[in-house]
Structures are given as C-alpha cells and as structure tokens.
Inverse folding.
C-alpha cells in the first residue's frame, strides 16, 4: 500500500541573515565555481542580503560589476521535501544554480547564456522587497536535490560597473509534512505557491503607436517577468493589447509595457 504526503506547511531553509560565502571578482571565476565540489574556503562569509545603495543589505559591498555567492546546506531525508521554490530579489540581474544546474535567472539573457564577470547587462532592474514588492519565484525539479550536501550558487551582475546600487537577496522555501524540518517560518510576504492567486488583466492602447513586429509585452520582474516573458494580444485588432497574469493576494510590484521583445 502506498501513501502520498501533502504539504502541511512551508519553511524557510535560506533567507535574509543566512550565512553565505561571497566573492568580488577581478577576473573570471573557475569554470566549476557553481559546483558542489568547488572549494570556497578562501571566500569571505557574510549574512544575506548582499549589495549596496538601497539600504536593504546585511552585507554591504563596495561598488562592483558582479558578485558570486555560494551556500551549502544539508538534507537528511529527501522524502521530507515535498515541494521547493527558490525566490530572488535582485538588482540588476542574476543566474542561480543548484548543484551545478541552472534553476533560474532574471534580466540576464536566456537560459544557458554565459555572462562574463565584467560584461554588464542590457538594462537595469530594480529590487522590489525594499519597496514592499514580492520577489521573483523559481520552482525547480526536486530531483536536483540530494541527500547530504547541496550547494546553491548565484552570480549577480550589475548593469554597469558604475551602477549606483546592487541587490542580492536569495530565499529557499521547502514545502514539508507536519513534522517539518526544523527551519523557521517564511517571511510575511511569502504566499504558498498556488494559494490565493488572483488574475490581473493589463491593457494598453497602441492605436497611435507603431507596434513592433515582435508584439507588445508586460514586464517588470517578479510575477511580471522580463521582456519576452508575458506577451500581450490584440485579438480583435482594435489597437488595445491585453494580458492576464496570476499574482498572489496582496502582491505589489513594478510593471511596464514594452513595444517589442527585447529579452535579448
């Protein structure tokens, strides 16, 4: 006889204040810097979040084109991990890896794209938590987790080396059975995935604009994504473009309309 478990509650495995290893680059890191076997013993250690310029940083960094983060956590019993989501509040762009496999990126090209430590980004992206918003969520395949040590590695890139701010605030939440894992509760802004979601419809009148052949998009990070994530439609050809996006109850965040897909 087989019994399936359901998520009883969510716990914060990693959140603000969690200790991470970090590195401010002056050259490209080793190719395996995001792998579990890489030695980060020489990297400084500090509590999340990381950055400067917004007043939302536990570890204040000097102005930098990029910062690389690593944290290794232990899992005793994979059967206790029924679901998991990675969240990231960032400025300006990031790529995250779990045990060497990419699990999320924002404002940093397409999955698999390489970004050099001093490359910069095509556009800026403001952090949202300090302004009362909700950060971007990235569910991932639980098969990427292993019993024993697991390494979450993140590269954060500034739009330019002279940018006035940088933010890296990573979170990892686990959906667990009643007994739990012994971690603390998630922060108050967290809404369990799929719980209390509401559709929000966006409209923009483009009758006096020359619409790109790539179409019109909603963007803004978080649930609104980066340009290219949320295409709008003009089904009846009247010049009014619309898109409906599911967001949690109480969600706040920035958004904009983009004429053309500039995700590249």
């Amino acid at each position: 006889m087989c019994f399936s478990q359901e998520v009883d509650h969510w716990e914060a495995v990693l959140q603000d204040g969690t200790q991470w290893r970090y590195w401010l680059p002056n050259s490209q890191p080793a190719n395996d810097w995001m792998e579990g076997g890489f030695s980060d013993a020489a990297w400084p250690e500090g509590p999340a979040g990381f950055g400067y310029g917004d007043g939302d940083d536990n570890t204040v960094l000097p102005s930098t084109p990029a910062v690389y983060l690593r944290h290794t956590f232990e899992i005793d019993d994979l059967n206790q991990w029924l679901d998991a989501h990675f969240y990231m509040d960032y400025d300006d762009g990031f790529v995250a890896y779990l045990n060497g496999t990419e699990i999320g990126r924002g404002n940093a090209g397409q999955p698999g794209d390489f970004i050099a430590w001093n490359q910069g980004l095509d556009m800026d992206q403001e952090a949202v938590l300090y302004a009362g918003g909700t950060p971007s969520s990235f569910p991932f395949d639980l098969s990427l987790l292993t019993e024993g040590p697991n390494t979450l590695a993140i590269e954060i890139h500034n739009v330019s080396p002279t940018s006035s701010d940088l933010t890296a605030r990573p979170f990892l939440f686990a959906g667990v059975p009643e007994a739990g894992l012994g971690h603390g509760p998630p922060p108050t802004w967290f809404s369990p995935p799929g719980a209390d979601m509401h559709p929000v419809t966006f409209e923009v009148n483009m009758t006096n604009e020359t619409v790109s052949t790539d179409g019109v998009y909603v963007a803004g990070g978080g649930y609104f994504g980066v340009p290219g994530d949320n295409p709008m439609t003009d089904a009846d050809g009247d010049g009014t473009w619309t898109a409906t996006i599911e967001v949690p109850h109480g969600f706040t965040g920035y958004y904009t309309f983009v004429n053309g897909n500039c995700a590249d």
